[in-house]
Amino acid sequence: MCALPVYRWRLAPDGYATRRQLRALGLRPGGQDVAAQLERPRRRRGPLVAYLYRIDRAKPVRPMTPGRWAAIAKANRARRMCPGCGRDAGYVIPTSLGTCVPCAYPQGEAHGIAA
Known about the structure:
four-stranded mixed β-sheet; two-stranded antiparallel ribbon; 3 helices; about 20% strand
């Protein structure tokens, strides 16, 4: 097992990219291992680390199929459904509440209104 080359922040050579940079180019790592890493030093904590992949080994992003679009739409719809009243809240229900705002604060305590 060999050690990864480590580059300082903004000093990586051409031909390497992070996952986000690959995605912006319409690419994905495609199963390749991390080729190098970037380190950005910080004062009081450990350095920030970003993993780099080789651009020449990256593969194109897989296109969205109708089945994947349907699965994402179904998952988003489930995140909007209130388990308390069963209605579509029209927004993603916060996990901190677990229900829609009217179910979580039935007497109007959400805005400091006393009933």
